[in-house]
Amino acid sequence: MRYFLYILFFCATAISAFAISLPAPTNLTVTAMRNADGRQYFHLTFTDSAVINDSLSYYRIQRWRGAVPDTTERTYIVGMRATSSQTQSYDDTSSLFNPSTYDSNFATVYSYAVYLEEYVQHPTDSLYANYSPLSDIVSGTLDSVYLYFTSTPSSSISEALHDTMNFTFTAKESAGNSTIIYSVYSSNSSVANAGIDSSNGNFYCIAAGYGSASITVKAKDAVGRACYYTFSFSVPHPYDTVTVTLKDQSTGTVIAGGTRDYWRLFTPGDSGHETAFSSGTTLLNSTGSFIILFPDSYKLNLRASAEGYGAAWATDSLGDKISIVNGGSYTIDLPSATSHTISGTVTDTTTNKPIDGARMVFIRVTANDGYIGIDTVYTDSTGDYQFSYTEGDSLVGTEWIRVFTYASGYADSMQYTTFLSSFEDHTGVNFHFGSYHSSSDTSQYFHIVPATGDTTADAIHTLTYVTIYKLVDTGAVVYSRDTTDRGYVPINLYTGKYIIFAQPDTGYQSGYYSKSGYAATWTQADTLVVPVANHPLNSAFTIFVILQPDSSVALQGSGAHIDGIVYNQSGGIAPSAHLLLYQQISAPAGGNASRLLYTTTTDSLGDYSFAKVPPGTYMVLVDIVGKPVFESQVITIGGETDSLAFNITYNPNAVNEGEQIPVQSYLAQNYPNPFSQGTDIAFTISDASASITLTVYDEAGKVIGTAAQGTYAQGAHTIHVDASALPAGVHAYVLRVNGQVWMRQMIVVK
User: Fold this and answer.
1) Separation CA 645–CA 633 (nearest Å)
2) Which of the pair, 211 or 204, is modelled with greater confidence?
3) N or C: which end of the chain has fewer CB within 10 A?
């Protein structure tokens, strides 16, 4: 069966602003129910009798306490998008129905009513609301007996590492005396190792590791009534401070106070494969210094830079990286940085004239997608602008810049670029604004709805990442990014050309909008032109983005996985690149064919991962909107548990770029992680042969096991680690290869 993800574009049809008589919803029913977890709720159904005429319509549900409600004191609880001639339903799961402690005002009877709110478009571009009368008011009755805790701990608990919290939970029924069974759930047992005596409620929680967790205690009686109490449990990590002074390498003087600094801490690792631990940005003080809150007992590498300078590691007198520790003071000499420029023109698309005085804000993107403004310029009388910037650093996470453009008086008064590399010049970065007009003239309303087979089928609520690309003179820029697990995404479009992309989290392959069916790459996609031909600006229309489920072969895949980094032509990382994993198979008539197994998207650091890959021969297609599609070299997975580190350099002028033969040794993150039964640790060896040890340590640095030891040949290797010999908690695993050392962390959950 094929699956479809379709996008509904709605825009209000301009109609008269005179009030329209709307019918009230009918056939309202209210039923008290209890779910499998023992919680009470009301299930509502009613008939949608609205006449929806290309407008925005919502059902508003009201609730009152009691059987004879005062309609002037109703409580609004939810708004639901209206659809024509259907039975609507809603579950009201208010905490009022399930108190965790004794409630002297506990009510068993609640009343409900529904009315329709419909927005219509006036020709002057204002939205007007019409309202239907209230439906009939209908009551429902809860079970009068409820379960509650007689005492509870604080809603937020903090303990020191290895301390134990003890508390006795006692639950009782508001009427009756049934046997009560207790249970507990911890969201992170490596931080909060919680347990409870099921018969008497004696609770304990061991602070097993640093971090935070949510703990929920449940009490349930013999007939299925239940009450819950949730509180947070944290184990704060002790911190000290590290002082870092930045100097100009060429002059030996401290860098001026007020200069923006950027820093990142790493767990020790091979150059190019360090694992980021934390990062930050501040302004240097008057002595050219900044302070980092540093975790006690850790040893980490530090790399720092400042605006206008290159980046450097904290090193010893020989230039070797050093592990900094808490309480220390360090000086880093920063080299000068290469400068580049970005330039373009801002124009009015209606008059085809330049826009004078448009404000251009230049942003440096920091680690974790933070935005730091680095300068502001304005376009001149010809609409032109130019800005100079210095190169960032991919390890510190400052290699990307963005431009935000503001043109006062336009409906689309703010536009922005996608991520631009700071390692190169950018010319022709142009912006086009529509003439002075209301946003309703060219805005379109989206609904993204996964469906099975046709537009009337049930929606598929798979977590989906939706990206809208706008085609511009320089290629394509990201217009918007949205995430949904509710089956739809709302968004507005303005005049222009767009490519629409959807990436489900699991179960489905990504795809683009295409009139002819499934489009795996952007080159197969159709361009959406707004306004849509043969459609008035304020008319409704529908567009489909067809998606396919993952291959049945992939769903039966083994534990093998392929991980790596995608680099661009300049050597920087390539975030948000769409990747397609194709498996080569024998064609029925002889020769070779291929089938699409998985799709994924690189993260902000250019990393990607394909899991559950069956043995076979593969290649990765790199799909970057606005650029040629690129095919990697052949990848071979030989066994059920193989794990391969495979980096890809996007180079559309070359063929079969890749790094399956390791150019340097590398330790991968274990998979799965966290784990309770076992996990696989993959690593590659660059030497023809090497003497290695793979050792596991506990949090105190004590050796608790050796996973591998001996001479290993060049290539990829995978070691399986059985969790039965490991205690619960956060552990470090360290790979030593011919004197080089890599370290990563893994979490055991029991």
Assistant:
1) 13
2) 204
3) N
Please, what is the Cα angle at 224 between 223 and 225, to 5 degrees?
100
| List of E strands, 367-399 | 370-378, 384-390
3-state secondary structure of 66: coil
Question: Does the pLDDT of residue 9 top 50, yes or no?
Answer: no
The whole-number pLDDT of residue 653 equals 61
**Residues whose CB falls within 8 Å of the CB of residue 320, separated by 6 or more in sequence, listed in order:** none
CATH code matching the domain that covers 666-750, chosen among 2.60.40.1930, 3.40.1010.20, 1.10.3720.10, 2.130.10.10:
2.60.40.1930
Q: b/e per residue, 193-206, with b = 16+ CB within 10 A?
A: bbebeeeebebebb
- For domain 550-660, the CATH superfamily is Immunoglobulins (2.60.40.10)
Question: What three-state secondary structure class fits 658?
Answer: coil
The domain at 150-235 falls in which architecture? Sandwich (2.60)
The torsion angles phi and psi of 623, rounded to 5 degrees, stand at -120, 105
What is the C-alpha separation between 315 and 335, in angstroms, rounded?
14
Q: Lowest-confidence range among 152-156, 538-542, 624-628?
A: 538-542
Q: Is the pLDDT of residue 481 over 90?
A: no
What is the reported pTM? 0.42
Class of 439-549 in CATH: mainly beta
CATH fourth-level superfamily of 339-433: Carboxypeptidase-like, regulatory domain (2.60.40.1120)
Alpha-carbon dihedral 95, 96, 100, 103, rounded to 10 degrees: 170
Q: Is 475 left (phi over 0), alpha (psi -120 to 50) or beta?
A: left
Is the CATH number of domain 241-334 2.60.40?
yes
User: Where in the sequence of the chain do the CATH 2.60.40.10 domains occur?
Assistant: 12-141, 150-235, 550-660
Class of domain 12-141: mainly beta
Q: From start to end of 250-315, where are the E strands?
A: 260-267, 275-283, 289-295, 301-306, 311-313
Say which residue, 339 or 678, is predicted with more confidence. 339
- Residue 162: how many CA atoms within 13 Å on its side-chain side? 2
pLDDT value of residue 525: 82
Cα dist from 540 to 469, 590, 597, 692, whole Å: 21, 49, 36, 65
pLDDT tens per residue across span 86-117: 788 899 988 889 999 988 888 899 999 998 87
Q: Please, how many CA atoms are within 13 Å of residue 266, restricted to the half-sphere of its CB?
A: 23
pLDDT in tens, 385-420: 999 999 999 889 898 898 999 887 665 667 888 788
Tokens 């080299």 found at: 335
Closest among 246, 445, 472, 218 to 345, alpha carbons compared: 472
Residue corresponding to tokens 């399930």: 98
Which position has the token pair 């010319």? 427
DSSP state of 572: S
Residues 6 or more apart from 362 whose CB is under 8 A from it? Answer: 342, 373, 374, 375, 376, 377, 387, 389, 401, 402, 403
Token couple for 514: 């295409």
* Phi, psi dihedral angles at 723 (to 5 degrees): -75, -15
